[in-house]
Amino acid sequence: MPISDGFAQRLLPVLQDIVASYGTPFHIYDARGIRATYRAMMAAFRGEPFRQYFAVKALPTPAVLSLLLEEGSGLDCASAVELELADRVGAAGENVVFTSNNTAMSEYRLARATGALVTFDDRSFFDRVETLPETVAFRVSPHGLAAGSHIMGDAEHTKFGVPVPELVDAYREAYRRGARRFGLHGMTCANELDVDRASRAATDVVEMAAHVADTTGLDMDYVNVGGGLGIPYRPDDKPLDFGAYAEAILAKRRECFPDAPPRILMECGRYVTGPHGVLVSSVINRSHKGREIVGLDASMSALMRPGLYGAYHHLSLPFAADRPEVEVDVVGALCENMDKFAIDRTLPDPREGDIALLHDTGAHGHAMGFTYNGRLRPAELLLTSDGEVVEIRRAENCDDYLATVRWQPTSVLNDG
Ligand SMILES: *Cc1c(COP(=O)(O)O)cnc(C)c1O
């Protein structure tokens, strides 16, 4: 949906100057908006034991991770490189959760060495691990309401988590192997906007943790309800009521754990930063090919979601509002017909040179980009809390594109 009034009021007065001096395309993120969302999440849990770990994959850019850490957030990592990134921005120990799947032993060792809270995605991997972390958590396969979501996969076909019937035994085994602190993880939804569904899915996980605790007699240190909360991409989508979501979780925790309530952990990415970014680009072509085509100077490499999933991203021409409206397809330059940002979109008649904004690119935007076709990833800028505009990642160039090339092919076998 259109960016918030606050973001628009901060961005639009300076946008033409930025574009004139810096050029397009680039993503720009709103520090104030990100902080405000994080603070609202914290406030919704009213000081109860709760911690939000930002899913690094959504926006793995140090300046943004640092501002979230400054607010008190933790980081959620799922790969060795994300762990390294967390380390470089100063997040250590239990300020990091490691929730991977199909994990390599080397990744696990790294996670354990950093002291991160580790989630074991599968029992067979757990059985192979020689040294357990201090706290053992298992990820439970989608069950209850989550099992109905086609993105998460149903219980039979998912690649995630320990199946419910094997869960209790996994905890007993962890105890036998010396673990004394326990958590339980359940990734309950994906881009979910319906607060009732999101709440039901999360409270299913709390109930599962209580079931494990009651059956095994073990104390649950934390319940991690994962990420997956949605943001309104379409103008008529309603934002999720996070306050009601938090209340539902707290109520279920009181009900299930009257004595020793576990901490609630969350790993939201999209919900925290998604609405607080836009991709700024310029119209470089108008053509008529049976359809009205508007070409931008950005490609799918800068924002995969429309081409990859047919996902809707709101598009606006902020300085063209008074023109008559037309229906157009808005495209990038990749040699792939799916490189389209919008199909049959109504816009004020676009002209070459217009500034075009693609909204809600603050999560799973730049991070998902690739360099196919030599269309390289654009820069990332930050509108700081003080109203400054700073570059936090430059655009890729040809040297980056070629950085991994061996111009002199090297032998891969050690002949001794
Ligand atoms: C992707 C992912 C997240 C974050 O998802 P969002 O939709 O950005 O909230 C959190 N936890 C795990 C395990 C994930 O795979």
From TrEMBL:
Keywords for this protein: Amino-acid biosynthesis, Decarboxylase, Lyase, Lysine biosynthesis, Pyridoxal phosphate
Obligatory cofactor(s): pyridoxal 5'-phosphate
Gene3D superfamilies documented for this protein: Alanine racemase, Lyase, Ornithine Decarboxylase, Chain A, domain 1
Pfam families reported for this sequence: Orn_Arg_deC_N, Orn_DAP_Arg_deC
Superkingdom to which the source organism belongs: Bacteria
Keyword Amino-acid biosynthesis: yes
Domain Orn/DAP/Arg decarboxylase 2 N-terminal: 34-273
InterPro entries tied to this protein: Ala_racemase/Decarboxylase_C (IPR009006), DAP_deCOOHase_LysA (IPR002986), De-COase2_C (IPR022643), De-COase2_CS (IPR022657), De-COase2_N (IPR022644), De-COase2_pyr-phos_BS (IPR022653), Orn/DAP/Arg_de-COase (IPR000183), PLP-binding_barrel (IPR029066)
Occurrences of domain Orn/DAP/Arg decarboxylase 2 C-terminal (ranges): 275-362
Family statement: Belongs to the Orn/Lys/Arg decarboxylase class-II family.
UniProt-recorded name of the protein: Diaminopimelate decarboxylase
Species for this entry: Salinactinospora qingdaonensis
